Amino acid sequence: MPLLALTFVALGVSADAFAVAVGKGLAMRRLDRRAAGSIAACFGASQALMPLVGWAIGSQLAHAVTGVDHWVAFGLLGAAGAKMLRDAFDDGDDEPAAGLGRRELAVLSAATSVDALAVGISFAFLPVPIVSAVLLIGSVTAAVALCGVHLGHRAGARWRRPAEVLGGVILVLIGLRVLLDHTGVL
Q: Which stretch of 70-74, 95-99, 128-132, 177-181 has the lowest confidence by average pLDDT?
């Protein structure tokens, strides 16, 4: 597979991570560079790991993974989005909503990389240099997610609550899109 094609694959699988990163950036009252770096690193690592796992699984479990990947993505993204929506309307805490715990970051990273697992499975059947592919996918995703956090923060620093709502809605809609796409509705 040519480098240009792999780059497009990397951009494609990083789209969900970008959308989530924009949502997290929207909810930040002040740009937290450490959180932005953590988001980028975790999304990049997860997007790199999942195709490697998919490639290792290969054809043995392809039918089982592709049969449930949309439900897993929908459930994880829906739960994360619902949490963001709940946090947007919770007035009992004055902490910034953009505070990103390890558990939430792990869930979001896994939820946005389920499609990369399926891509990795397809790599098992194609002439793809797997190490180069996963490094490219991870690097592109990290860069895209970092840009997403910064873009989201610049757009939403003044409108915290609407930004949190938008971030939650984005996650729920991404999960719904994955579900509808994989069930053949879209």
A: 95-99
Q: Is 60 helix (H, G, I), strand (E, B) or coil?
A: coil
In DSSP notation, 90-141 reads -TT--S-TT---HHHHHHHHHHHTHHHHHHHHHHTTS---HHHHHHHHHHHH
Judge contact between 133 and 53, C-beta under 8 A.
no
Per-residue pLDDT reduced to its tens digit, 39-89: 999 999 999 999 999 888 876 765 665 667 667 667 766 776 677 677 667
Give dist(CA 75, CA 78) in Å, integer: 5
- Residue 20's φ and ψ, nearest 5 degrees, are -65, -40
Instruction: Pull the structure tokens for residue 89.
Output: 């309307």
Q: Is 159 strand, coil or helix?
A: coil
In 3D space, the residue among 150, 149, 152, 151 whose CA is nearest the CA of residue 160 turns out to be 152
Phi/psi at 27 (nearest 5 deg)?
-85, -5
- Whether 97 and 87 have beta carbons less than 8 Å apart is answered as yes
Q: Which residue in this structure is represented by tokens 């924009």?
A: 22
Q: Which SS3 state, helix, strand or coil, does residue 59 take?
A: coil
Q: Which two tokens stand for residue 92?
A: 């009992």
How many other C-beta atoms lie within 10 A of the C-beta of residue 51? 30
